[in-house]
Structures are given as C-alpha cells and as structure tokens.
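The authors assume throughout that readers already know how a fold can be written as discrete tokens. The format is easy to grasp once an entry is in front of the reader. For illustration, here is how one protein appears when written out as sequence plus structure tokens:
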Amino acid sequence: MTERGLDAGRAYHLESYRDHLSFERGLSPRTIDGYLREARRLAEFVISRGADSPREVSYELLRDHVACLAEEGRAASSVARAVYALRGYFRFLVLEGVIETDPSERLQAPRAGRHLPDVLSVPEIEALLGAIPLDDRATRRDRSILELLYGCGLRVSELIDLRVRDVDLEEGLVRVRGKGSKERLVPVGAAARSAVRRYLRESRPELDRGDSEGRVFLNLRGRPLSRMGVWKILRRHVARAGIGKHVTPHTLRHSFATHLLEGGADLASVQEMLGHADISTTEIYTHVDRSHLRQVHRSHHPRG
C-alpha cells in the first residue's frame, strides 16, 4: 500500500470502520471489501483536495467525488452502490463521534433503470419439476433441491448451507442462514415437504459416508454439494424439460416471489420469506407483477 493510502487509512478511521462492518454489522468479507474500497477511494480523493480529516469533508466535495466516479465510465448502478456505501460510512463516523454532522445526507445517487428479473411461468415450473424422474438417489435429491429453491425462495448459498437439523418437516419450516449471518424461518409447502422427506429417507443415508458435515444436500461422493453442483443439476433438468429460457437458481427465487404476489400475498410477508433487509429490494417484484397484470388485461379485456 502506498504512503498516501496509509495516511488515508489512519486519518479516515478505515481500520475501525472495517471492525464495525465485520463485528457489529456481521457483513461478508466480500461486502466489507467493497465498502472499504469506496471509503478509501473517497478518502484519497478528498485528501487530494485538501481535506485531511473527515471533519473537513463537505457536501460539495462529496458531490465532486461522485461526479468523478461517473466520469470514469462507471455504470449508474455502480455509482449508486458507491453512494449507498458512502452514506453508511458517514453514518459510522457520526456514531463514533468523529464528525457531528453528516455531509452525505443530501447526496443523490444516479437513477438506474430497474432490471426486471427473469421468471418462469407456473406451467414452466410444473414442466421443470415434472420432468425429473424419481427412480434413483440422485434424481430424488435433484427433485427436492428444485422444490426447495422454488417452494421457499432460497438463495443457492442458503440451500447448500442447510443442515439436517435446520429442516422441520413436521412443522413445515426450514431455518435459513442468509446474508450477514441473519437467520429466518421459511415455510415449506406440501410438495417440497414430500420431496425432501423422501430424499432424507431413501437417498441421503446412501450418500452420507461420514463427510457430510451435517449438510442436507450431498454430491454422489458424499460431500456437501457445491454451488456449481446445484447449477449443473438445474441446467440438466431445464434441458430435459425443454425450457428455452436461461434459467439459474436465482430464477427460481424470482419465480417464487412473483408467483406469491400474483396469488395475492402481501409485500411484507414476501420480504420476510426472501430475507430482504430493505423492502425496497422486494418491491421490484411488484413491477414484475404489474407486467403480469397488464398481460392479463390485454388478453382478457374486451378493449385491452
């Protein structure tokens, strides 16, 4: 690290900020690195403009920094993430008493077009799940994986981290460890319960050779299944079902949320099941739902 970088780290309390992100907020190492990178870039920029401490950083300096990020060719979504990270950094400085007022309060992020997530229709979901035979231990495992991804809206990282003790089929619940080590309980529907129960009874005992670490889903060597393993399983069964769309594990999560909202579920409940910290993240699915409603209107209204 350069001497300038060391100076920025000391003057702008970046080590303390790292500890705050790790120990108090419990963020992942990748997220911490991203937040620290934005804070360090800001520190180096404002030091170059004569602000040797956070107390000397003004709203105008922050605005200039954000403008420079945009001029570097970063996408609007990337600049928006940087602004979000910087707001969190200055909230930390206020909490620590380093500064008294927050210069980032009026800082505006550029508006980025919202990308509507790809989803499968209900018939496509039925085709995908119905195309999986249940005649051996691998396919029984595969069916229960896809039933849980779609039936509970799990992230693939959450699925592969599931322990046997996290699954309560009698109560119809799974305990999920999401982002930032936050836990939540997610209901398991009848179809997913049936598939997982059969897998646990008939397939997993054959797969478990003592190296499972208590994980629910194992590969054919008896080790915990990896993210890539789940991707390969999904890709194989998407091809078998003849679905032409690009489908990822996250597509099943998007489909879960969209179909709940189309069925009349309230946004707050969907937010809780998805494990979103901010309901604005969940709100993107209301845009998908509106697209569905517009299509229904066009198809069925006399003057649609």
